[in-house]
Amino acid sequence: MPSGAGPVARTGHRICPLCESTCGLIFELEGRAVTRVAPNPEDLMSAGHSCAKGLGLARLEGDPDRIRVPLLRAGDGSFREATWTEAFEEIGKRLPEFVADPGSCALYHGNPAAHHLDSTFYLGELIGALGTRNVFSPASVDTWPKNVAHLLLYGSGLGMSLPDIDRTDYLLVLGSNPLVSNGSTITAPGMDRRLRALRERGGTLVVVDPVRTRTAEVADTHVAIRPGTDALFLLGLLAVVATEDLARPERVPRVVDGFDEVLALAAEYSPEIVAPVCGVDPDLIRAVARGFATAPSAVAHSRMGTCMQEFGTLANWLVEVLTIVTGNVDRPGGAMFTLPPAGGPNTWPVSKPPRLTFDRWRSRVRGLPEALGELPAVCLAEEILTPGPGRVRALITLAGNPARSLPNSAAVEQALREVEFMVSVDCYLNETTRYADVILPPPPLATRGHHDVTLAHFQVRNVARYTPPLLELGAGELAEWEILLRLAAIARGVPDLSTERLDDEVAAVAVRRAAKLAGCEPERVERATRDRRGPARLLDLRLRSGPYGDRFGEVEGGLTLALLEANPNGIDYGPMRPRLPEVLRTPNGRIDLMPELIVADLPRLRASMSRGHDGLLLINRRQRRGMNSWLHNALPQPDEGQCALLMSPADAAESNLVDGDRVTITSRIAAVRTELRIDRTLRPGVVSMPHGWGHDGPGLGTGRSAAVPGANYNVLIDDEQDLEAVTASPIFYGVPVTVTRASEGRD
Ligand SMILES: Nc1nc2c(c(=O)[nH]1)N[C@H]1C(S)=C(S)[C@@H](COP(=O)(O)OP(=O)(O)OC[C@H]3O[C@@H](n4cnc5c(=O)[nH]c(N)nc54)[C@H](O)[C@@H]3O)O[C@H]1N2
Ligand SMILES: Nc1nc2c(c(=O)[nH]1)N[C@H]1C(S)=C(S)[C@@H](COP(=O)(O)OP(=O)(O)OC[C@H]3O[C@@H](n4cnc5c(=O)[nH]c(N)nc54)[C@H](O)[C@@H]3O)O[C@H]1N2
Ligand code: SF4
Ligand SMILES: [Mo]
């Protein structure tokens, strides 16, 4: 305990909700205040791992700039504090008009909403009540190329194949820096320990990244690839596999189609052909291909760097193809499918007829395809700004900062300014919520139970955990799920219906579903779970009807929420186990290695090979104490060169720039200024900046970050012309820019 602190009133377990590692933490509380956060060494998933962000949760929770009561826009444009009743009355006066005009109220839900139980279980109610297809989230600027590749291969965009990192002999990481990000589409807290263990057991780590990142630093081999060329690099690897007869058909599951065709296709892309485009030595491509294909077990893991680039879906498809044709899918040490405790799309029975959740509808203005029930977030601004029938006129944001996370910030902010009515559920008055008419704050973390329903699909080990609320809601606090239900009630035109009634309605549907899954009578399910309310009841229903569930009393010792409450460090159900073919949700129950939609994008890749390679390409870097745009206010940020543009010594010399210069970075659509830092970790031709900064402009309630606003990466990013072809995701990585010394006195 820090000296000077009073006696610790009590401690409690809390799973960290910030990133995909889902570390187990111990909160110390005095009264209602979280005074200290420590890692939980007993946690069965994270075993004592944590990071500065998780340990900073006490600061984040105690940040004096946080919004703790509803805010209403006053006549003069400023915000005033309001009661919940006033806030909902105001929403009740304005929202119904937009619900009556179908689709005119859009919803954007941000990254934290993917973690919390409240939004996981109750957001659907709100979307249903709004009756809108204009639903957006960062998934479409983050993972869609990977989701869609998995959807087309395995039938589910969420239940992805995972690298069995703790047992593999060869790990090929493309476009991810887990020693800083703590990993994504993989829940494996303590990456440093896991990667060290891989090497200690004689395994090999290869990192493909234009930057010698912290992760690349600990690898056996770093492939300093030119941004945007991973698909070609992977084709080069596959060409070696094809021409040197390194594929292992005997280890390829019988449900796989297109094995010969995909290898025949790849054979044309020999290392000598792709190497000059990738900026990589052909011998290195051969060495990686041979190492991967001949290792007892091997797996490739791709993330942000392969998604947010020009050929994202192709790259993520080829990652799976490589793993499959070398005989590494569904085997220990290869790519496996986890079995999430609360179930999910790849544990539930196949819907009949199975239908892929892609391109079922399109956006109004540009006709861009839906994926996984949402439209590409690059459409949000134009759907508001473009007149005509079906225009988005109202917006609800939940736990998101589109003004900083989406491309073309200027257009997004213009849209937020013009939208007729806006409600934000958020704990900060930030670059987005400053345009809201009403802001509704979520309650403190310690009042919320946690089980990561979504991220359990990415866990590299089958562990079930739940940390219950540590505090009751305080006076003036409203649970986030209740906020969502109240908004849904207003949208449904039943604003006076009690939260209890609304929650019972949601639970009644969940009871029927759980009964069906568990194969028992709904009455029995209802009886077994009736003592709980809110997310806890819905979670209990999911756990008990899930793969380890007690089926509401039928399976002795089976999983229940009560069992997890009694075991706050979790329950270990062991390593991932083979799940093919039962895990597949494709229409024909097979894996087609040549999905038409993806293969059709190959000519575009081919055409890119003859392009010149002059000029600088901008990429992005994550920072240890940041979480996208929203921790800069609460957590102290090292300020030296925080938002600097990093450039290699060779490029700096060529551009006649020196360390510390103030520079202007100009993309096709805009320019920003920042400081230059010379950095030897970058491959020449590549410059890097962090995202989520640019805490500037009027009306922010985040005093500390506004004092050090930093440069906004996303003003530079196009939301129109340069999109990934299959999913319409923006291209954040590999953006052509020019960098010049900023003229004196102009900033
Ligand atoms: N500290 C911290 N942790 C975070 C976050 C944060 O903001 N801060 N954000 C969280 C979120 S929302 C996510 S989605 C995850 C993301 O987690 P990761 O997927 O690990 O993302 P990054 O750390 O951005 O790593 C992407 C890497 O791709 C590289 N890269 C850029 N272009 C290319 C390319 O064309 N090809 C290849 N092969 N590599 C390329 C970059 O140099 C970078 O090292 O991190 C999460 N964790
Ligand atoms: N250039 C560039 N742009 C990027 C990325 C990149 O690498 N480069 N990364 C992209 C990725 S991977 C992501 S995931 C997105 C993130 O995009 P967003 O989710 O839009 O942005 P965040 O900065 O994560 O903002 C989270 C918001 O949630 C609020 N919040 C936090 N906790 C809670 C809560 O419990 N309840 C509620 N209601 N609100 C809460 C915070 O105050 C903040 O306003 O950014 C994307 N944008
Ligand atoms: S690694 Fe992620 S989950 Fe773990 S403490 Fe840090 S932010 Fe939280
Ligand atoms: Mo993300």
TrEMBL record:
Keywords: Iron, Iron-sulfur, Metal-binding. Pfam families: Molybdop_Fe4S4 (PF04879), Molybdopterin (PF00384), Molydop_binding (PF01568). Gene3D superfamilies: 2.40.40.20, 3.40.50.740, ADC-like domains, Dimethylsulfoxide Reductase, domain 2. InterPro entries: Asp_de-COase-like_dom_sf (IPR009010), MoPterin_dinucl-bd_dom (IPR006657), Mopterin_OxRdtase (IPR006656), Mopterin_OxRdtase_4Fe-4S_dom (IPR006963), Prok_Mopterin_Oxidored (IPR050612). One of its GO terms (molecular function) is metal ion binding. Residues 9-65 form the 4Fe-4S Mo/W bis-MGD-type domain. SMART domains: Molybdop_Fe4S4. It comes from the Bacteria. Belongs to the prokaryotic molybdopterin-containing oxidoreductase family. This is Molybdopterin-dependent oxidoreductase. It comes from Nocardia bovistercoris.
